[in-house]
Amino acid sequence: MHKGIGFWLAKRRLKDPDKTAVVFGEDTLTYRELADAADRVASVLWHRGIRRGDAVAYIGENSPQFLQVMFGAAQLGAVFVPVNTRLAGPEVQHVLVDSGARAVVLDAEFLGRAMPGIEAGRIAQVIVTGDGLPEHPGLARLIAEAPGGHTIADVSLDDPAAIIYTSGTTGRPKGAVLSHGNLTWVALNCVVDYDVVSGDVSLMISPLFHVASLGMGALPVLLKGATLVLEKGFEAGRALALIESHGITMLSGVPTTYQLMADHPAWASTDLSSLRKLTCGGSAVPTRILNAYEERGLSFSQGYGMTETSPGATSLAPSMTREKQGSVGLPHFFTEVRITDEHGEVVPRGTVGEIEVAGPNVFLGYHGLPEATAAAFTEDGWYRSGDLGYLDPDGYLYISDRLKDMIISGGENIYPAEVENLIADIEGISGVAVVGVPDERWGEVPWAVVTLREGADVDTDKVRAHLDGLVARYKLPKNVVVVEDLPRTASGKIRKADLRDRFGGR
């Protein structure tokens, strides 16, 4: 019996064959059409040598083909590797090589950026979405001409389903291995806690390569047999128009997207009466945005999580948005959260400690990194988030600080070490620390604080020019500040909290 996510569409084809599954621009796919296409993708991959356990990478904007490839790979027991389209060439190469991908499906516009990774890795099949290119077959044609006779693997919930790359504190992204069970249970958590129903129409304005958009956005909707309206990207005016024209009931995003919609000239005149559920992640929703949406009768579900928890760990119900403002909520229905001290002992409520998470949505480990995997878990199997927080008397979680110094800018995770390692290579720089500085639009943005060797001349433009093409543009420092000395502890570690305090008010 096939127990993985690969059988979901076949079940939906039986139960709701003519129900609209996906809307993409002017195109509409029923559950029968989506399931048939996924079957054909599985056939295409099988006849091109992809087998159980092989990694299949995908580099492309939101489209039905993203879902078709993911579910098609899942039918074979292959492992889906969605690649962030904003990554620079060297970052893409790392993902393709590290994952050991045997095939890559990608939009034509990303072929040039992906070629170094394709040539350096184990990739034997390159397929281009749409009609393809002279040198590479098009997925649309392959689906149309797909032969039958592929094997559907017997997949268990414990088998790997996807590898999602998350930036690491050491500067190299790590591949978090998510099982079929992880993706199933995180979807069930969302169905329960966000009350997803089959009549919902969900607008997806965030990239599906993000684990939140996939695990907590698309998958619960498809599991429940609701309708997913896919957008290639986000534009505030178009999002408002789609809400009105499609009768959107569900919307997920980050504070920046909600702010841009509220600030758009069409905000006041758009009919938002269909909206029932707004979910927001990445960072806390500012009071100004809460006010703007509450004036329209709308409230948010906010939450906390990470790639390693597929990603949802907690959620704050809309009814508690004001009473528990500042909290990220209660643990999801099938998930548990606890707070421990430096010795691993559970601390009383109200005491700050490390946030640990357990449940069937917690990942299997880091691909090819047994030591990092072992370090990520406690002896009794809880995931160590590396974040500090506390539980209030009612069990609601509050985030106090990030041990890993992660910056969240417009919903994108930035780990300073990755950027710092590259800035340190610039001639004339003797020391560097990258910290997050509050920003009204993006929540926070990276600043680089540097010290210089005598006679050196380094400015923001020089640093950004050096980094451009090496990392995604959202990781480029918005400002470079030169200081005489970086504050350090007795052991020589830079005190980033001091830098955030110093520059955070600017």
- CATH topology assignment of the domain at 5-155: Rossmann fold
The percent range for strand residues is 25-35%
Structural class by secondary-structure content: alpha/beta
CATH structural class of the domain at 5-155: Alpha Beta
Number of DSSP-assigned strands: 27
Radius of gyration: 23 Å
Strand order of the largest sheet: 2-1-12-11-13-14-15-16-17
Overall pLDDT: 93
CATH superfamily of the domain at 5-155: ANL, N-terminal domain
Shape: globular
CATH architecture of the domain at 5-155: 3-Layer(aba) Sandwich
Largest sheet: 9 strands, mixed
Question: What is the rounded distance between the termini?
Answer: 59 Å
InterPro entries: AMP-bd_C, AMP-bd_C_sf, AMP-binding_CS, AMP-dep_synth/lig_dom, ANL_N_sf
Keywords: Ligase
Protein name: Long-chain fatty acid--CoA ligase
Family: Belongs to the ATP-dependent AMP-binding enzyme family.
Note down, in words, how this protein is organized:
By secondary structure, the chain is of the alpha/beta class. It is built from 15 helices and 27 strands. Among the domains are: 151 residues, Rossmann fold (3-Layer(aba) Sandwich); 105 residues, Rossmann fold, CATH 3.40.50; 97 residues, 2-Layer Sandwich (GMP Synthetase, Chain A, domain 3). The strands form 7 sheets. A 9-stranded mixed beta sheet has the order 2-1-12-11-13-14-15-16-17, with helices on both faces. α1 packs antiparallel against α2 and α9 packs across α10. The model has no long low-confidence stretch (mean pLDDT 93). Keywords: Ligase. Pfam families: AMP-binding, AMP-binding_C. This is Long-chain fatty acid--CoA ligase.
